[in-house]
Hints:
Layout: H1 2-16, H2 29-35, E1 37-45, E2 55-56, E3 60-61, E4 69-73, E5 78-86, E6 89-100, E7 105-110, E8 124-129, E9 135-144, E10 147-157
Antiparallel strand pairs: 1-4, 1-10, 2-3, 4-5, 5-6, 6-7, 7-8, 8-9, 9-10
Amino acid sequence: MKRILLTFVLAALAFGCKSKSATATKLDRNSQVMMKGTWTVDRVTTPASNYVKVTALQLADAACFEGSTWKFISNNNKGEMALNGGAGCPSFSSPITWFVNREGQFVLKVLNAGEKAKKVRDGYILGVQNQSENEFELYETLDIAGKPSKVVYHFRRN
């Protein structure tokens, strides 16, 4: 009897402590609908930006995202992003897939032309904050000099 009870308790703990994947949670449709449209990143805030170069989304320096344009289509979770280039920044344009889950996480995949999202294994999970009808922020938490630090991308509706 004790073994059965112990097995049951251990099984309950194992299933109760299981972490959730950002992609396995339900969608926050209200947040997604608010993001529908074309947006511009009007500023990027990085900690210690004068001393540390932060590479964002494995594409370019975070400062290169200022002025970038993003298009979000909420009914099929597709879109586009484009970096303008210039001043040491690359020009880059790509289709994306994205969604917002109920935990306030923005899940993003950058695709190559003609590539299906299910073939892309790598993606990015950013937080969503300060969302309103005309602006919102995405942030990623990075380890800079041993401390968790936020890189914040401020989006403004076009």
